[in-house]
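step: validate -> pass
step: tokenize input -> pass
step: predict -> running
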Amino acid sequence: MIFNIRAIRLEDAAVYHSLVDEIKDEGQYLFSTLRFSLEDTKKYIERHEEMSSPIWGAFDEQGTLLGWIDFNRGGFSEIAHTAMLGMGVKKEFRGQGIGSALMDACIENAESLGIEKLELEVFASNTAARALYIKKGFFEEGIRLKKRKFEDRYDDLVCMGLFLG
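step: predict -> pass
step: emit ->
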């Protein structure tokens, strides 16, 4: 599959917003199914642009957004050396190297900004994502048991980290 990685721009807001909602609708991978407005999505993109930490998108040759990744830096000076990572890949394109390429772009961007540690949280049932994170050098830091209850099923939350530099 041919795709390119680039920063998601304001003009991509509608397709980014749609993809996030699509993955939320699956109900398995993101923390919440709560939807945000398109206006809030635009503000989120602008905030990332202002911080020089864009939301990275994988786009196919037709310009379709296949996946995204971003990170949010710790808000207090004592944790500003860390950032929390989040990502998603369109269901029919998973397992084709998109997540890996997005992860590479994000890690490179984080290193260029002097971030010392990336962190993420993933549900224990998401074994494919966990395998990708381990392949990229992340390690498990802890497990929060029964963190999520969705449709009467519990899922543990696995906390992972990656030291950069």
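step: describe -> The chain has one domain: 3-163.
step: cleanup -> pass
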